[in-house]
Design goal:
The complex is a heterodimer.
Chain A lengths: L10 H16 L6 H15 L4 H4 L18
Chain B lengths: L11 H21 L5 H4 L13 E5 L6 E6 L5 E6 L3 E6 L5 E6 L7 E4 L5 E5 L4 E6 L13 E5 L4 E6 L5 E6 L3 E6 L5 E6 L5 E6 L7 E6 L4 E5 L5 E5 L6 E6 L5 E6 L4 E5 L4 E6 L8 E6 L5 E6 L4 E5 L5 E5 L6 E6 L6 E5 L4 E4 L1
Antiparallel strand pairs in B: 1-28, 2-3, 3-4, 4-5, 6-7, 7-8, 8-9, 10-11, 11-12, 12-13, 14-15, 15-16, 16-17, 18-19, 19-20, 20-21, 22-23, 23-24, 24-25, 26-27, 27-28
Chain lengths: 73, 353
């Protein structure tokens, strides 16, 4: 498989690649946005309780809690 | 691949016309399923509480702009790379530097930690991606064991190990992405489809299979099948360069950060953009994005020195984090989601929690 530099392609080559690519994409099977958004929403909600940055964690459990006393830069 | 035979009478103009009509058809197909916006679906969900996130550690040591960083799977080590040509491995808990490598070039734009934690990969203006095994012996010269893996014809913008230390995926200013075998340096697959520099790539979470997403200066985000090299989906809604792409934790969507000052969320099954994270007051480009563990929060670093935290579902900003004294170039959440790290052109990295 050759590694090609995009700058070396002619306009014609690029146009042909684009048309071939678009033909593939048009045929894709798609799902309704409402259904997909519901799924994203459910995924987040099921994981939110375990998400430390969302729920927050007590200082003692936080491995990055402030070091007491002097701060070493 | 570059010089395929042409059907009789095909010219650039006829192909361009065909292209335009296919694009219109694509938009039509996508619009048929566009029945709602993500934030509408999210109306019934509780808003997030007040956020208190602050800098817990500042990692100082680079002599110039920090361009990239990556977490080790052990959740405490970090590798960072800089314009000064240095790649440093840090212990984020103690801020100690554990290893330092001097690259033969400046602008080391990409670095990545190997899944085993035993090596790091990096590259930039040298057009290569090199792997350095990390030695337990602090006195050993890491540069001596360096292995050159990838060769592009322009700068290396991003690199990532796949699920093992054996393969690396790279993206480049030459407009391509490529998959390499680390041991032999052999090119396993190349990915052509972008019409300008590719700036970022991200691998799908392992459960979702063998795909990755890339974004670049052609304003496109492309999803690729790693085995066939095929571009399976393409999204072009940004108005300027896409600087960073990141998969959503479930693998069904991905986010982008762009010079058009917006971040966007694209759903792969709906095959379209489903959310846009922007504000009139944000006019500087977003350089880097990452999700919190559950995907509820999107952290984005901007060229105006700030980090904005977005509620992925509602589309609203929940916090702005100040602290860096120059552009934020990279933002990554730790593997267990307890903190995130930001790197900046102010030569430092910060850990926030």
């Amino acid at each position: 498989m050759p590694v090609i530099n995009v700058e070396e392609l002619t306009d014609l080559d690029k146009a042909k690649m684009e048309v071939t690519q678009l033909k593939t994409e048009v045929k894709l099977e798609r799902a309704k946005v409402s259904k997909c958004c519901e799924e994203i929403s459910e995924y987040i909600q099921s994981g939110a309780d375990e998400d430390p940055l969302v729920k927050g964690i007590p200082e003692e459990k936080n491995p990055f809690k402030e070091k007491g006393g002097c701060v070493i830069c | 691949m570059a010089c395929q035979g042409l059907a009789k009478g095909e010219t650039t103009n006829t192909l361009k016309a065909e292209s335009e009509s296919l694009k219109a058809k694509l938009e039509e197909e996508r619009a048929k399923l566009h029945d709602v916006e993500l934030h509408q679906v999210a109306e019934k969900i509780d808003a997030l509480g007040q956020f208190v996130m602050k800098t817990r550690r500042t990692l100082k040591g680079h002599g110039n702009k920090v361009l990239c960083m990556d977490w080790c799977r052990d959740k405490r080590r970090i590798v960072s790379s800089s314009q000064d040509g240095k790649v440093i491995v840090w212990d984020a808990y103690t801020t100690n530097k554990e290893h330092a490598v001097t690259m033969p070039c400046t602008w080391v734009m990409a670095c990545a930690y190997a899944p085993s934690g035993c090596a790091v990969a990096c590259g930039g203006l040298d057009n290569k991606c090199s792997v350095y095994p990390l030695s337990l012996d602090k006195n050993e010269n890491l540069a001596a064991k360096k292995k050159s893996v990838a060769m592009h014809t322009n700068y290396l913008s991003s690199c990532s190990f796949t699920n093992s230390d054996m393969q690396i995926l790279t993206s480049s200013g030459d407009g391509t992405c490529a998959l390499w075998d680390v041991e032999s340096g052999q090119l396993l697959q190349s990915f052509h489809g972008h019409s300008a520099d590719v700036l970022s790539l991200d691998l799908a979470p392992s459960e979702t299979g063998n795909t990755f997403v890339s974004g670049g200066c052609d304003k496109k985000a492309n999803v690729w099948d790693m085995r066939s090299g095929q571009n399976v989906q393409s999204f072009e809604t940004h108005e300027s360069d896409i600087n960073n792409v990141k998969y959503y934790p479930s693998g069904d969507a991905f986010a982008t950060g762009s010079d058009d000052a917006t971040c966007r969320l694209y759903d792969l099954r709906a095959d379209r953009e489903v959310a846009i994270y922007s504000k009139d007051s944000i006019i500087f480009g977003a350089s880097s994005v990452d999700f919190s563990l559950s995907g509820r929060l999107l952290f984005a670093g901007y060229n105006d020195y700030t980090i904005n935290v977005w509620d992925v579902l509602k589309g609203t900003r929940v916090a702005i984090l100040f602290g860096h004294e120059n552009r934020v170039s990279t933002v990554r959440v730790s593997p267990d989601g307890t903190a995130f790290c930001s790197g900046s052109w102010d030569n430092t990295l910060r850990i926030w929690a």
